[in-house]
Backbone:
């Protein structure tokens, strides 16, 4: 069997890559896409922990998997809503690049 | 566990009622013609009043767990429930006139407003991370839509995109924190987290990363510096009532979660891990300083209010930082501050909305000479800003007094010092707004006067009819709508009343905060 | 054992490589397809972690719905031509992510996973000793001191029980959240109707 640590490291790597993408990309679609990577990292972490914690604690057997299901559901809704807003902006402005997002603006 | 699922459901009557009434708003909207959509505002307001009435019937001194401890109905939740519904009423009052001229699909607007209040209510009651997260998302989703709701304004679109991207990013960070906490402890219940933190032995590094990421995520939702960058853009772009809602409602909700999370999960272990107090204190200090200093440079009124609200988040965070020393005092200070901040900001935003509805401008320079045109609105804004700055006889002073006293009492004298200093700074930029309203002349005034005199010389006979001219020297009074006037009037009464005699509200708040008092 | 290791490393290579591709490739369309690959690989991890139901959900929702939605989004906004250009924040973004990644790797490595999830709880010692992922079979659980009922609940349909049992409230809240997203998305996308 594979040690839990490996899965934690894998989750951390996906999360870091996703965070980089979310901060460094220009297209709003790509930013949302990178955030999905981060959410997948969350799910790996949760399910690995659930599997590892199996049979310990209160409902530990499936808690993590339940949380992961919720995360997936919310993620799907987020993508849908984000696209509604993005498409509207595209219709009004003809671009979805968020150059104007000046994250470090004071 | 089975009994917990079925026996206590009546305790959630306010939430069930709110859900049903939100559906009612969505449904009625389908059958109403465009010109009578105002009724939906009335329906939504009536729903909120009904929910407040139901909540008032419940006992604040009892607490009952629901759904196996995912959620608790107690005095704290009840207090915030009523508070959130009252905020919702205020926002609806702000939206009616604005929405008639500037918003489409108003049925969805009011329905989503009710949904977001439902999310806030659930948030104030949840004592488990997943439930809190879902409630927070219910609130955020409605807000994402509402921020992007300004149909004709590209600004609103852009604000919507920025808001949803940062919102989703912060949820992802918060969730990663949640997953780490779960990996380390096998639980997401606040009380069990506290038990594990307090247990002997070193807490694992993974747990600390989890809690840190959770706090970062909360920082985004609270718009604490350095996680505030979305706030000014979202505030500026959003339709005005939604800006008010962001400033008042979403802040209050995020603080309700923060208070319960810290009270139930972190403070009980404070004796062993008191470093967290310093972390929150530094965060609070940076937030106060950055929010108030950057506000000095703002030209747009909504952006100014955004930075001012960031500053106020800093004050409330200072109260959170001292929760560990005298919990009752600090919690009372924070909750009272939130209520006063909400009422005062509602007055200010009602004033700004009244002005914007008439003139369609929201830059500070556009306010010039406003006191002549809309004297009552100008006075309301001025009193609201004085209260935000913390001048005596207004509620802002009392609130800051209690909060800063609690901070100083908790052994963070330096933090109280920073808070007082930044309050003085904030007085400066609030006074700038007042200078525009009361002292500055509008840029085109001289031209108008000249034009009018010329006109009068030409036509002496009709001189007495000068007030009918399109550009008279003394502009005609512009009356705000009755609803906005009433909102400002009631808000001002509350501001003065709380400034002079806060005791009854403080008693209520003590009951509320007693419900989350950490044991031991 | 040996086989699982190979599968893990193969999937990890696909997932990490795909993820790097998503954030580095210039062609947006390829980025979306790579993302779908990452989703499939992650689904494979779920199977390894004995979360078969989640693996199915992952394929259905992430690959079947979200990835397709992304591709639609990219095509509808004709963003393909513009490409996946980085913004000005590339270096600070890299630094922040690298620091966070380093912190997380450091904490994950220094955490003693054998004592975790354990402080103050019973029964975990034997299971935790393996320090490995995967649902232990009934004999292992019994050896770890769980009662017959508990063993059954672990092995049985615990997921469904939890979802519409103890977690029914978030479940209901999520349904409202989906409704809010649908109504909100419609209200925004419908534009200036009527």
Residues:
């Amino acid at each position: 069997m594979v040690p839990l640590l490996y899965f934690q490291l894998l989750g951390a790597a996906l999360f870091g890559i996703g965070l980089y993408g979310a901060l460094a990309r220009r297209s709003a679609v790509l930013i949302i896409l990178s955030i999905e990577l981060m959410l997948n990292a969350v799910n790996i972490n949760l399910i690995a922990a659930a599997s590892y914690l199996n049979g310990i604690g209160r409902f530990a057997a499936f808690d993590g998997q339940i949380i992961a299901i919720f995360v997936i559901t919310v993620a799907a809704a987020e993508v849908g809503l984000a696209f509604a807003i993005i498409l509207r902006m595209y219709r009004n402005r003809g671009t979805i690049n968020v150059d104007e997002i000046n994250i470090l603006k004071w | 566990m089975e009994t917990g699922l079925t026996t206590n459901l009546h305790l959630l009557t306010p939430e069930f009622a709110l859900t049903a009434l939100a559906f009612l708003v969505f449904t009625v909207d389908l059958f109403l013609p465009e010109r009578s959509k105002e009724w939906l505002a009335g329906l939504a307001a009536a729903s909120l009043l009904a929910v407040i009435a139901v909540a008032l019937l419940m006992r604040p001194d009892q607490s009952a767990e629901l759904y196996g401890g995912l959620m608790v109905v107690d005095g704290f939740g009840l207090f915030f429930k009523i508070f959130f519904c009252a905020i919702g009423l205020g926002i609806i009052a702000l939206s009616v006139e604005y929405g008639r001229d500037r918003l489409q699909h108003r049925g969805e607007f009011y329905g989503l407003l009710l949904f977001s209040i439902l999310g806030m209510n659930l948030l104030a009651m949840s004592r488990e991370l997943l439930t809190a997260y879902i409630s927070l998302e219910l609130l955020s989703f409605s807000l994402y839509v509402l921020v992007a709701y300004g149909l004709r304004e590209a600004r609103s679109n852009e604000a919507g995109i920025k808001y949803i991207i940062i919102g989703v990013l912060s949820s992802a960070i918060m969730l990663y924190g949640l997953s780490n906490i779960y990996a380390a402890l096998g639980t997401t219940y606040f009380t069990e987290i506290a038990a594990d933190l307090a247990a002997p032995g070193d807490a694992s590094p993974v747990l600390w990363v989890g809690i840190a990421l959770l706090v970062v995520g909360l920082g985004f939702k609270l718009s604490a510096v350095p996680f505030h960058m979305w706030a000014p853009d979202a505030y500026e772009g959003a339709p005005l009532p939604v800006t008010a809602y962001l400033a008042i409602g979403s802040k209050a909700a995020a603080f309700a979660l923060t208070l319960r999370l810290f009270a139930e999960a972190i403070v009980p272990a404070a004796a062993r891990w008191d470093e967290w107090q310093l972390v929150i204190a530094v965060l609070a200090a940076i937030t106060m300083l950055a929010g108030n200093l950057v506000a000095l440079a703002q030209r747009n009124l909504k952006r100014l209010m955004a930075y001012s609200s960031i500053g106020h988040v800093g004050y409330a965070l200072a109260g959170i930082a001292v929760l560990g020393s005298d919990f009752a005092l600090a919690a009372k200070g924070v909750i009272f501050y939130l209520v006063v901040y909400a009422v005062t900001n509602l007055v200010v935003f009602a004033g700004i909305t009244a002005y914007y509805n008439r003139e369609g401008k929201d830059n500070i320079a556009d306010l010039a000479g406003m006191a002549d045109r809309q004297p009552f609105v100008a006075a309301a804004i001025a009193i609201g800003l004085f209260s935000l700055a913390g001048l005596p006889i207004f509620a802002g002073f009392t609130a800051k007094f209690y909060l800063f006293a609690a901070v100083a009492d908790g052994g963070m004298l330096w933090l109280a010092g920073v808070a007082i200093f930044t309050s003085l700074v904030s007085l400066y930029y609030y006074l700038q707004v007042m200078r525009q309203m009361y002292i500055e002349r509008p840029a085109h005034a001289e031209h108008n006067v000249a034009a009018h005199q010329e006109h009068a010389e030409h036509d002496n006979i009709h001189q007495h009819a000068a007030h009918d001219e399109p550009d008279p020297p003394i502009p005609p009074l512009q009356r705000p709508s009755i609803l906005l006037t009433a909102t400002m009037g009631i808000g001002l009464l509350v501001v003065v009343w709380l400034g002079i005699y806060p005791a009854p509200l403080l008693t209520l708040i003590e009951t509320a905060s007693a419900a989350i008092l950490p044991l031991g | 054992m040996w086989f699982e290791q190979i599968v893990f490393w193969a999937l990890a290579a696909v997932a990490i490589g795909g993820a790097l591709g998503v954030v580095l490739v210039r062609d947006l369309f390829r980025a979306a397809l790579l993302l779908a690959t990452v989703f499939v690989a992650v689904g494979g991890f779920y199977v390894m972690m004995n979360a078969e139901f989640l693996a199915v959900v992952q394929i259905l929702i992430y690959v079947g719905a979200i990835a397709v939605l992304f591709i639609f989004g990219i095509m509808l906004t004709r963003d393909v031509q513009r490409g996946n250009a980085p913004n000005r924040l590339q270096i600070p973004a890299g630094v922040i992510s690298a620091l966070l990644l380093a912190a997380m790797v450091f904490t994950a490595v220094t955490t003693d996973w054998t004592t975790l999830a354990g402080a103050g709880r019973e029964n975990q010692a034997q299971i935790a000793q393996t320090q490995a992922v995967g649902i232990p079979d009934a004999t292992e659980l019994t050896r770890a001191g769980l009662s017959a009922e508990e063993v059954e609940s672990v092995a049985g349909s615990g997921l469904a029980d939890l979802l519409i049992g103890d977690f029914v409230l978030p479940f209901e809240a999520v349904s409202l959240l989906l409704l809010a997203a649908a109504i909100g998305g419609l209200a925004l996308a419908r534009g200036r109707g009527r």
User: Anything to note?
Assistant: Chain A touches chain B through 51 residues (CB under 8 Å). Confidence is low (pLDDT under 50) at residues 55-60, 101-106 of chain A. The longest helix of chain A spans residues 60-93.
